[in-house]
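User: My collaborator and I are trying to settle a disagreement about how two of our proteins should look. Neither of us wants to argue from intuition anymore, so we agreed to look at predicted structures for both before our next call. Could you fold the first one, then the second, and keep them clearly separated?

Assistant: That sounds like a sensible way to settle it. I'll keep them separate. The first protein:
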Amino acid sequence: MHFNAIAQERAITGSMAGQVQTQAGKALDGASVRLMLLQDSSVSFATLTDLQGDFLIPSVGLGHYRLCVSYVGMRTLCLDSIWVRAEKLSFNIPDIILKNNSSEQLNEVVVYAEKPLFESRGGNITYNVSESAAAAGSTAGELLTQVPLVTRDPDGKISLKGKEPRILIDDKPVELNLQQLQDLLESMPGSSIEKIEVMTQPPPQYANEQGGVINIVTKKGRVGKSGRISLAAGTRGERNLSANFTYRKNGLSLTVTAGYNDNLFTGESSSKRQNNYPDSSNYLTIANQNENRSARPNARLSMDYEPGKKSVLNLVLQYNGSQADNFSSTRFTNLNRFNEISRASDRTVSGLSSSRSPGATFSYQYKPRPGETLKLIATYNFSTSDNDRDFYQRYYYANLQFTGIDSLQRQLIDQLVNTYTIRLLYDKMLSNKKTFLSLGSYYQHGAHHVLNEASYKKRPEQIMLPLQGLSNDFWFYQGVGNWRMSIRQLLGKEASITAGAALEQTDIFFDLLTENKKVSNRYASWLPFANFNKNWKDKFSLTLSYRRTLNRPGMGQLNPTVDFSDPYNVRFGNPFLDASGAHNFDLVVSRTQRKYFANLGVGYNIIEDVFSQVRTLLDGGKTQVTWENFSGRKEFELSTWNGMNLSTKCKVTLNASLTFQRYSAYDLLVRKFRNGASFSSSIGYSWVPSDVWNANGTLNVNRFANPQGFANWTAAIQMALQRKLLKKKLLITAALIDPFINQQRKSFTYGPNFMLESFSLTRTQNYRLTIAYLLSAKRVSVTR
């Protein structure tokens, strides 16, 4: 590219690139770009943008610079304090937007701030995934576990400070059930994500979400055409292929992402349960080996179009699929009170499962005037899944000799889910410019059909006959309507107060076809919320909030289908569960400086009608595991999330969350519940020795409590190192997942007449290599 060096007094080693566009997203051809050294104004460079609005200034020396961009009829924009140094020689500044000229202000000066891996403001956290080496080859689910305060339990459930958050993608709610959400997060390529925003104190639209909000922001690409293709492979048997293409021009933005993720996990588990009876006791030991091979294809199309300055249309089409092949082998051994074998059996479970989940989201945003926004969001999701399993069991005498008796059972489960949601949001700044009104409403309707066919092999006829007692067929319908209003009032420049409430009505209907029985329930909930926020010169902030939240049981808790993969531990859901309400009180204190940020949160929660899994010992040495409501509990929370710049090359984050759980006297005495504590923590680092090398990693340590016991400490490690080649178009990333120890979990469960100690191990150790290539138009020199 042509450029004019007015003076060159020092070594020339770096480069400055960028893209200039209008507020409407149109590339500016022929915009004037000037780069000036702040220490010596005689050192400057000048160039013009090309047809795509791109510019490139090579051979830029070390030092602090000011970049100014101007165009006829547009306001000049200057970016100040751009620091070119040995560890960061090249800068690429996307989306330099010039505003229309105004007599009030002809020039705009902005202090340039490099994007760190983690940012914190007002207690909220932003994880800039595009700056992370770990994004290459990872999924959205893996990246979420690297975010401070976010954890994932052994069942794959995402939690924020111990509570289930609302997941958004590009500011639009993801209206999926738990299994659909897991499939989405485990198939969504991390390379398609720009950043992940964690809102511990969410805006009024989501103020009643029990676990706050996590917003996944996808990459929109640059003006013109761009893309990326990547291939990853891991020593654990992992394979990952993904590609994305973006096109932006004149108010139209199109992004297409597709990928295929294949994973292999193997593991083992063991447990020992002591059963106590009035006159005796006995034991049951279980040893298990398991293997799971899963494949997840995915595709996503997102289109944004601005028909005018006041309107934005968005359409998202999404498809997620999964196929899994599972196998497990289990030895059950019954012991008497002297720890002598009384009988034993081997049980193998083989299964095939698959799911298909297409969905669509349409949104329309209209801004009739500054400070006023009307937004409509409509979502439809459809899902079908099947899970077919065979259970074969052989029985042995006390001397472990085969008795000659065996059994074969089969369970075929088909599910269908239809969900649609309509949301309407309206926000307006009143004429005094200090009062903000927020209104909103939504309606969500879901239909869930489950068909479970159980059968067994009758001998000696060798035919499969139905097991009527373990088969069921039912429909589950749920409708939720919500109406919300809130007002935010500025109290000077640095303080504000927000207050509002939502009225929510839930309708539930079960049509149990097998039992010829219908169950329905309707309840309304009043959900007030309020918060006070105070800032001191944008460096120190305090937020005090109250929220009334509601936790409705999902299909995983309500489904009455009996899972008989383990004959000694029968599991099923409870269709008669009630929703759980909570009063949440939080105080968050934050301080942000150039070299560090620090946050401290204190919370107190009063939870009513808590529902949780409860294990009960039955006759015959079996336990029953189902979901039950109990009186409630109180929680005390203490959390902190912090970041520090050790140097210009190295940054670290330190985060921890501690929750004390206290149950009622009745639950402690009669149910034998135990007060406990859950703890999660993480340590992360980011090291950028130069603009072509990038490294980061995290260490997570967790401990989970439950009403009947606790799970011991678990640790997870992930490290990544990235090298950029071929003018930063070729990216090679090496990642180490749990390099020193596999994921292990030891848990203890106590009941009125039993004690259970369990251990599980999943071989998560993985060494992954990812190769990615960036596709973009070549910047062409334009001389004027």
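The second protein, kept apart from the first:
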Amino acid sequence: MWRARRVLCGRLAGAYRLCSSNRAQPSASSSSPVSPALRGQAEKQRRRRVKERAILSSQHSNTGDHELTWSEKEEIKYTAQTPPGQKKDTTVPFPSSYSPEYVESSWYQWWEKEGFFTPELAHAVDQSFSLCIPPPNVTGSLHLGHALTVAIEDALVRWKRMQGYRVLWVPGCDHAGIATQTVVEKRLQREGKHRRDLSREEFLQEVWKWKNDKGDEIYHQLRKLGASLDWNRACFTMDPGFSKAVTEAFVRLCDSDLIYRSERLVNWSCALESAISDIEVESKELFGQTMLSVPGYQEKVEFGTMVTFAYPIDGHDGEVAVSTTRPETMLGDVAIAVHPDDPRYKDVHGKHCRHPFTNRVIPIVTDTMVDMELGTGAVKVTPAHDHMDFLLAQRHSLPHLTVIGGDGTMMPHCGQWLKGVKRFDARQQVLDALADKKLLRGKKDHAMSLPICSRSGDIVEPLLKKQWFLRCDEMAKRAIQVTGVSLYGVSIMHLCLCSICSDWCISRQLWWGHQIPAYHVELPSSSDKQEVGWVWGRSEDEARQRAAIKYGVKMESITLTRDTDVLDTWFSSGLFPFAMLGWPEQTSDLQQYYPNSILETGSDLIFFWVARMVMLGTELTGQLPFKKVLLHSLMRDKHGRKMSKSLGNVIDPLDVISGISLERLHQKVKDGNLHPRERTVAMEAQRKDFPKGIPQCGTDALRFALCSYKMQGEDINLSVSQVLSCRHFCNKMWQTLRFTLGVLTFPFHNFQTTPLSSVDRWVCSRLYSTVLQCERGFEAYELHAVTSALYSFWVHSLCDTYMECIKPVLGKLDQRAGVQIHREDSGRAKQVASNVLYHCVSVSLALLSPFMPFLTEELWQRLQPFRPDAAKASLCLQPYPSSTQLNKFEGNHDSDVFGLKLQVVKVPSKCSTPHFLCMVKFYHQSYSAVTVSLYGTQYLIAKMHYKQWTVLRYCFTVRVRVRNDLHALLPTNEISSKITPLCPLLSLFCYWI
């Protein structure tokens, strides 16, 4: 039942059934053969237009993100003379405030030069962890969607590396055949050139120049994002080694009879003059007559109308009327189909009609696929230009007549009056000719979904072309039988494999890409070149040997001509997990790191990339290419639109890291290839979202913010204000370390002394709990749970609570009015407090390192002079903290006691509602005191630790009393509504006096 999902035939059948017959939906409410996939795309287009109108409307906020409040910060730069690749000097004075530019300087070059990212690095456990980065296309720079992938994958990689695994994370880029060629062609057009003006070799030189520029830019962005990739193994899908793998895969699949050449209907872009894949077909929803711009036409073209015309019955009076949205294709009609049970056409079964322009006789056939309720109930059959008609023609052994060429012009056999005429110009000429013959019966508005090439903007034309196809049905079935992939995020791997039932067209009529290693054979005795056949081989010599054996002739008598087509990009991308490791050679990397431990990618690629990797990997290597699949949600802009270069709403992660002005954002949009309307929408969205531009947030803040989102579930609507709040967290960490360095003294003793106070034990218990949450979060791939636990511990437990409590002990608390400071006389207590503080900060930095590599390295290196034992060179090589090291602090009496204290000091915030304040004795004055009423046991505990409350109470006095009679404290009728239970387990109640 899933076989129709995402299949090309099912996707375009509805669209072009609309365009070729009366079976197209006449209204939005009536039944229609439009496929669910196409309807879904149409609905996306509708929502997209709604969002665009919201952006442009006056109702949309003009103030941008109201949470995006920021002011220019003082620029602090690292000025020490550190040669590239040398360790950063952390002995220089510690700056007073956090500066991303200062922090991120020099570290990455040192990490890379020292080889910290290579699997050859010394490791603690005899286990490996491997994955590949989803290779970004060399069509342009990375956007925040790519940054999300990098942040997630690098967090996992750094975590595993700190656990002692032998880690391999391979970087790479995809040549993105059709996308890259389109971009380069547009650049040439701006220079007044055309691809056809150049030879294939000259054009490929232009593309390689583009690739080198963009590839370097992408790798620069990855380094700026802190991605700990093994650059020694960087892989490009057009590298010689990778090309060898692609050729080997093609030959093996041909030898297994899984690849074949046939003439079939394909998606065709007349602008590109190439077949295109499903993923490159978008649908545009039309609700009636609509004028659209089409590449190659100066005037807009009309769509969204349905024309009805008549076919005269040959040899009899009468006619059969049919309807179509594509009258130009009627030159290719080979039959008229009616339902066998339709009483209106019982008399014409088996009869013929006469074509009004070609004088051909076309049969009237009966087929149950015809919907009697739609239109006239009679359907024109154009098998060379419609997927459903193609299937009908196969059932009735009808011929195929192609009337539109690959360049979008009418074929010669259409007649001199249409020969060479562009297809949409021919549309009007056909209508005029039908009117002249008095066969035109009407024209009306018609709702439809129009398939459009996402690369060229051209209207997709189903054309009958000889192409190379890969049989997917059997491969998918075999993959399903062996699939043991653990899937995190969604559970539709089997569904996607089942959906790949139609054969995959893998050939493209492009110049940029892997040229198909197949050769057309010409023999001396053959008069017709088309009658011989094709052979394939890893080289021309091998192909010649195969041809000699196949046709029983001598090698020297054979003439071979290599196919000029290239392979679909997704074919080579599907080989990436093993081709990057040296396949087909049995390299040590392939033996050690294949299958990959995990594949992490966006959920939108599960069909086009993930399922194909499973099929090809299983077929070619006998193994699944990865053990686990982790899918994350899609990144969208603030308005809910998917980030796309075609919409102009992509944000360069470097612009968030370094900051950018609104003017520069506008200029980037202007420099792109956007349609004028899209350009207007994009610039207006920028003006409203970033009225002052984007502030400098830094790499660590961006990574932490991205990992703070739940990876599975709803799509992510990223707001820069959330990244900015993470920058504030970075500054909090910075100031925490400044405080810590100010209280640490030499000689520094190791953290071995048992903490003396309940607050020490409480913070250690909280640290243990945080480490445990991090372990569980990483193991479950729930990074948002890890970041939440780390933020909560650092800000609330460490800074807001523990550091405030130990300031009197360390002599760091300012005198404030009304606050009596209790200083510890014991030097041992001071030493213990500083030891605990150091331990909490040091462990927390290690926990945060996978998310904030630059900041944690900077701060950790500053702590090293106080470290009692010899440390490894870098924090990224330190063991990741384990809960087993801190399990002695798991839940203890003293930590519970301190929890009681925290509940007491939270009274003011919990009792600040106007309803409760009516009980305050000094209603119009500042609160002066709070009385806490406790049961006897809790009262005794509280009195023992009463002095610590004065540190946390801020501006009010805490009084403790034994709870005797609650009813005596307040009127009976006020007890239920006026008394707030703050700690039910301890029966804690409070009231104001």
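Some points you might bring to the call about the second protein. The chain has 33 helices and 33 strands. The two ends are 72 Å apart (CA to CA).
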